[in-house]
Amino acid sequence: MADDFRGLPWWGKLGGQFAAAAIPVYYGVDIDRFTFPIVGIHDLPGWLAAGLAFVWIVAIMNMVNFLDGLDGLAAGVCGISGITFAIIALSLNKPEAAVLSAIVAGICLGFLRHNFYPARIFMGDSGALLLGFVLATVSIQGLLKTAATVALFFPLLVLAVPILDTSFVVARRLKHGEKLYVPDQAHLHHRFLRRGFSQRQAVLYLYAWCVILGAAALATRFVPFREGGQWHLWPTVAVALIGFLAVATSLYMVYMLEILKLRRVRAWAERRRDAKAEQSRALSA
């Protein structure tokens, strides 16, 4: 709130985030283990469990804050994430995490009535950082601390959009030697606007991307593709198709927004398009 009303230097905001992240870690919200297919459950030493949780919470807080660049974007993405987390946490017998996730979803969806384009109310850093804080902690306590197979993928899939957005921006800034804490116009929503999309269209595209990734997380949890150490053919095919859709959607976004300079792929596509045009002209002649 102090930052929204008066403005704080980057180190002041980061210090507040460190203090906030230290509280749940102190009370046992840490990444003490993770479950992965084939290799099974891996326990982590206490210092590493606390350190990973601390970094995860601070990172997600900032990622959600960075995503808050268009009307309704952060609220919608966090609402979708909250719904997905609630369903998964409830299935994992984590009712407290499920209820908290559902509360986040309800807050976000109610707020969207006033925040969707054209917005009348804005959440500011105090809202975005709080949403990131809650989603980060509930993903640790409600999803990672389980024996569920591929539990490590749940938060990564559900929060993939803010994670990818910040990762690409940070990589770009490091490549060009720019300061990490200085705002720029390289985020996903800025790229949509430069490609000619309206604010409403950009937000809806990002919503759809989040829904597809959330569906992939739900499919990983609820489709019984592997039970009792045995793989089941058709459930595995179904999960693979959903995963392929999620990956294909993500690659399409990367290609369309020119996040990576895929010169060879783009040149091949242009040559193919030119060849089809030449063939059409030849047939018409």
Sum up the structure in keywords.
mainly alpha; single chain; 71% helix; two-stranded antiparallel sheet; globular; 285 residues; two-stranded antiparallel ribbon
Q: How is this structure best summarized?
A:
The protein is mainly alpha-helical and 285 residues long. 71% of the residues lie in helices and 4% in strands. The chain has one domain.
List the helices and strands and how they pair.
Layout: H1 2-5, H2 10-26, E1 33-36, E2 40-43, H3 46-67, H4 73-91, H5 95-115, H6 124-144, H7 153-158, H8 160-175, H9 188-194, H10 199-222, E3 226-227, E4 230-231, H11 233-256, H12 263-284
Antiparallel strand pairs: 1-2, 3-4
Helix pairs in contact: 2-3, 3-6, 3-8, 4-5, 4-6, 4-10, 5-6, 10-11
Shape: globular
The percentage of residues in β strands lies in under 5%
- Please report the distance between the alpha carbons of the first and last residues: 69 Å
Q: Please describe the biggest sheet, giving its number of strands, its sense, and whether it closes into a barrel.
A: 2 strands, antiparallel
Radius of gyration from the CA trace? Answer: 21 Å
Could you tell me the number of beta strands?
Answer: 4
Structural class call reads: mainly alpha
What count of structural domains? 1
List segments where confidence is low: pLDDT < 50 over at least 5 consecutive residues.
none
Q: Strand order across the biggest sheet?
A: 1-2
Mean pLDDT: 81
